[in-house]
Amino acid sequence: MRTSWKQLVLILAIAATSLPAIAQTAIPQNSGIDPALLAKANAGDPAAQVQVGESYAAGKGVEQDLKQAAEWYRRAADKGDVAGELHLAALYRDGGKGFPRDRSQSAAWYRRAAEQGDVGAQGILGLLYSLGQGVPKSDVEAYFWFDLAAAVNGPKQQQYAQNRQAIGTHITTDELDEIQERVAKWNATHPRATATE
Question: pTM here?
Answer without folding.
Answer: 0.79
